[in-house]
Amino acid sequence: MEIIYGSELSQKIKGELKQEIEKLQKDGRRLPVLSVILVGDNPASQSYVKSKANACTSIGMENRTIRMPHSTTQQELLNEVQRLNEDPQVDGILVQLPLPSHLDEVSVVDAISPDKDVDGLHPVNAGKLLTGRDGFVPCTPLGVMEMLASVGYTDLSGLNAVVIGRSNLVGKPLSLLLQKQNATVTMAHSRTADLKALCQQADILIAAIGKPKKITADYIKEGAVVIDVGINRMEDDKLCGDVDFEAIKEKAKAITPVPKGVGPMTVCMLLKNTLKAYKEHEKIYG
Ligand SMILES: Nc1nc(=O)c2c([nH]1)NC[C@@H]1CN(c3ccc(C(=O)N[C@@H](CCC(=O)O)C(=O)O)cc3)C=[N+]21
Fold first, then answer.
1. What biological-process terms (Gene Ontology) are attached (predicted)?
2. DSSP state for residue 102 in the 8-state scheme
């Protein structure tokens, strides 16, 4: 059984991104810029935003984190997004979610220019993915596909993939990406009848449920590849996935841990998307 460490795979990919940015620097070019907007003082959000900033710095990409107070109004936030849309120095815009409850996330995401939407959440990018056009794909699904590729799972012809979770951020886009690689995909969710029996058919099982250790060994087909997207903060402050890792690890062909699994890949794919945005902007502005 193989453990797929996102922490290691992301280092390798970041090394490649870093080399590309060093080349830009050598050629005297403008460097890519990621701008992150953080509203309020949610501690988890603060720590995620910090790790995104550190990841940028580690590859020589510029990070501009904009901190706005909890009391920020919808209009003030929209104005800030608009300012970044119009700033030719800014390649990627990420509005850290969740927003405080008085703000409307959907209209904020809709205000981000699709060519700077490195989170892949704008409906234009969602529509591009759905219809097979080139656009920005959400970072967590991209990271999952990289993890599968790292164990040789690129052409998924003849394989059953079960995705548990149907969010716009993970389940829906990931199902499309798996299907594009020829997997036969089933999207399961909280209302699925007999989830266990369905999971037992899965050659690739993706858990994005949000319930700690929900997926136990009896859900797993022998030799399956299991990707755990769950990040559950336990009472002792430790992180725990949706998968009961210890119970499953001997049954699976490959499995991702939590932490050090999908999380670090998400951040890494954000950098990759920002470099992609930069390249497209340079074609336009440069
Ligand atoms: N607009 C937006 N885009 C996002 O991509 C986004 C967001 N909002 N809001 C919150 C979620 C969550 N998220 C994570 C990123 C990295 C780790 C990560 O690196 N986790 C480490 C551990 C971190 C720790 O110990 O706290 C790991 O799993 O090993 C986790 C979670 C991105 N998100």
1. L-histidine biosynthetic process; methionine biosynthetic process; purine nucleotide biosynthetic process; tetrahydrofolate interconversion
2. T
Ligand 1, CB cutoff 6 Å, lining residues: 47-48, 51, 94-97, 119, 139, 231, 239, 258-261, 263-264, 266-267
Which fold does the domain 139-263 belong to in CATH? Rossmann fold (3.40.50)
Q: What is the torsion angle, in degrees rounded to the nearest 10, for the CA atoms of residue 271, residue 276, residue 280 and residue 281?
A: 0
Domain limits, the chain: 29-114, 139-263
Q: Does domain 29-114 have CATH number 3.30.70.2760?
A: no
Q: Has 231 been labeled as part of a binding site?
A: yes
0.85 surpassed by complex ipTM:
yes
Whole-number pLDDT of residue 286:
58
Mean pLDDT of the chain: 97
pTM of the model: 0.96
Q: What is the H or E stretch that residue 174 is in?
A: helix 171-180
